[in-house]
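Appendix C reproduces, verbatim, an entry submitted by the partner laboratory led by Prof. M.T., so that reviewers can inspect both the input and the predicted structure.
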Amino acid sequence: MATLMISSGRGPAECELAVGLYYARLARLHPDAVVVSSRGGRESTVGGQKITGYQSLVLRLPPGASVPEGTVKWRCPSPLRPKHGRRNWFFQVRPVPDPEDLAGPGPDVIKTEKTPPEKTRPEKTTAAGLPKSDLLFATFRSPGKGGQNVNKVETGVRVTHAPSGTTASSTTARTQLANKKLAVGRLLEKLRLDASEKQGERKRQNWRQHDELVRGDAVQTFVGPDFQPA
């Protein structure tokens, strides 16, 4: 399944309008296409129909759909500035990673080398939204002054998410069971934060490409207010 960015770069409103016309054409050809994100959204009338112009669109195509990648030219007198002499407007189509792909279906499927700590034992049930088969636990004596179980038995708990190598621990509670629950909760929060940060960075990378329009030989050319292939 392809994910594309359709970008007007720093072009004028006519280039944004061309992006909207191109998207309208793709939506007719591929009704199952999904807009992942968009920037802009100014509505104009072209050839008697309302068209929304966009600075950028990230579009997820259905399986099997194919779209030429590269610079696209729209040759048409400006519908927005009738006395303007320019007739060629450019935008670009390029593949980008889908922002949802980075976070994935959940932290339990992050694939990296396993680094289990010492004295670990895999669990088989599910807790806190993570498969316990992916959680490796180690117990240790809690530091600090003694008191009841603290510093006498192994009440501290360290948990490792084996697929990602992320770890968390707890020594604040007086019992091993309570520390185990706290450690798993902290681990889950770390995994969610990591996934959110990575997803945000991927989105920023996608939008930085918005400004990188290269006006070269067009891989496609469309003409007129009805946006027909040349």
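The chain is about 25% helix and 30% strand. Additional entries are available on request from the coordinating office.
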